[in-house]
């Protein structure tokens, strides 16, 4: 796809496109209470607002892979950024929930186009001895986006006169402004497949084997809970009594951003662990088991009766986010290599992305529904533990032991 020198410069640019695309997901949590007050949205409806970006991805993952096959990965990313940026600007003018929901869905189209095309680009552009590390950086795009999106918005919306409308304009402008950087620094890939019959064959070949589906379920078991928990952390812990309401909003927002940032850091660490020969199966089981334990610690106790309540809960959330990062990088690193003969990495990634985005959509909806039914967050662990158990079961069945578990299948 490119010379080593060009690729070494280009793959970090691709990672940044993923971060910017994901910031359109994570610009919402710190703004959610402002939007609910402004547009009159209920708690359960706010869960749909959180997840609608992922719903677009959940419905369009394979369609995005078709786009990538036809116009190439680079221009798929550019189109995705254009969709996300323009929709964010349009959303800044929203005066009702329907308008905002529609623009969020279009942002989701942009998000899915970027996140389907980018992983294979990172793998192709990174020097061969840096592929696992580069995939680790890619795996951290969501956590990094959460750190930036939630942290920046928490400060801007609570410590300045900037409204959520202006925050939407800012995100749209930054995303659009980065498009020339991509066009200038990322080399064009090979021409896409223009024959739709050929594309259909490629996609069918890619998804007819069970392994992409299994990896998709494992990834979804992570995103179902991580996205939901991190989306609602500012709401869950937002009633803590501190010096003032603004102090609460800023401190909880920044704390949530740090929790998300830990995920970004841990994804990079996971890439290094894979580079050093740690078995993917072990990393997946450890990550999902730790998520089950720590999410129970976050939700099950009545922290209001414990000295230093919010600190302990946030520490548990930090471990939850950090350990969970073992999952996305590990799955993505395997996914770019498992396309069967006649298939393509873009189609495999499209399927997996479609599955984990569906989980990203339903996670906040289910979590908010459990909280509403239970009149509190204390039963929310039932969702997270169930997801972890499913993910661990799929790992034990479908991911062989070994440092390179799929090599013996001729799929690495």
From TrEMBL:
UniProt cross-references to PANTHER family, sorted A to Z: BLR6921 PROTEIN, MAJOR FACILITATOR SUPERFAMILY MULTIDRUG TRANSPORTER MFSC
Major subcellular location class: membrane
Name of this chain's protein: MFS transporter
Superkingdom: Bacteria
Subcellular locations according to the entry: Cell membrane
Stored InterPro entries: MFS, MFS_dom, MFS_trans_sf
Transmembrane stretches, start-end: 7-26, 46-68, 75-99, 105-126, 138-160, 166-186, 207-228, 248-274, 283-304, 310-327, 348-373, 379-399
The entry's keywords: Cell membrane, Membrane, Transmembrane, Transmembrane helix, Transport
Protein's membrane topology: Multi-pass membrane protein
Coiled-coil intervals: none
One Pfam family, short name: MFS_1
Domain spans labelled Major facilitator superfamily (MFS) profile: 10-403
């Amino acid at each position: 796809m490119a010379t080593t020198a060009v690729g070494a410069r280009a793959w970090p640019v691709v990672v940044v496109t993923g971060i910017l695309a994901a910031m359109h997901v994570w610009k919402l949590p710190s703004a959610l209470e402002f939007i609910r007050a402004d547009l009159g949205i209920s708690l359960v409806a706010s869960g749909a607002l959180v997840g609608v970006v992922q719903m677009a991805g959940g419905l369009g993952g394979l369609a995005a892979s078709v786009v990538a096959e036809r116009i190439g990965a680079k221009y798929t990313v550019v189109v995705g950024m254009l969709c996300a940026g323009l929709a964010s600007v349009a959303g800044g003018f929203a005066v009702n929930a329907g308008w905002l929901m529609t623009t969020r869905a279009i942002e989701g189209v942009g998000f899915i186009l970027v996140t389907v095309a980018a992983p294979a680009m990172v793998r192709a552009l990174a020097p061969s001895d840096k592929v696992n590390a580069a995939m680790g950086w890619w795996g951290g795009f969501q956590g990094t986006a959460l750190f930036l999106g939630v942290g920046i918005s928490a400060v801007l919306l609570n410590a300045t006169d900037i409204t959520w409308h202006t925050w939407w304009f800012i995100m749209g402008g930054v995303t659009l402004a980065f498009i020339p950087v991509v066009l200038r620094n990322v080399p064009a890939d090979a021409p896409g497949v223009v024959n739709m019959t050929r594309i259909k064959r490629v996609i069918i070949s890619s998804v007819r084997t069970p392994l992409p589906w299994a990896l998709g379920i494992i990834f979804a078991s992570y995103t179902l809970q991580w996205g939901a928990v991190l989306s609602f952390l500012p709401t869950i812990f937002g009633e803590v009594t501190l010096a003032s309401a603004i102090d609460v909003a800023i401190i909880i927002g920044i704390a949530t951003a740090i929790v998300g940032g830990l995920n970004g850091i841990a994804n990079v660490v996971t890439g290094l662990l894979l580079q050093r020969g740690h078995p993917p199966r072990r990393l997946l089981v450890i990550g999902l088991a730790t998520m089950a334990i720590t999410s129970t610690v976050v939700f099950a106790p009545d922290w209001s009766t414990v000295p230093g309540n919010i600190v302990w809960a946030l520490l548990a959330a930090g471990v939850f986010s950090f350990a969970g990062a073992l999952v996305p990088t590990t799955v993505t690193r395997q996914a770019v290599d498992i396309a069967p003969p006649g298939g393509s990495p873009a189609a495999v990634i499209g399927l997996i992305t479609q599955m984990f985005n569906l989980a990203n959509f339903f996670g906040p909806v289910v979590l908010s529904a459990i909280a509403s039914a239970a009149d509190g967050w204390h039963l929310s662990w039932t969702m997270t533990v169930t997801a972890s158990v499913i993910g661990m079961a799929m790992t034990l069945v479908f991911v062989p032991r070994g440092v390179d578990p799929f090599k013996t299948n001729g799929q690495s």
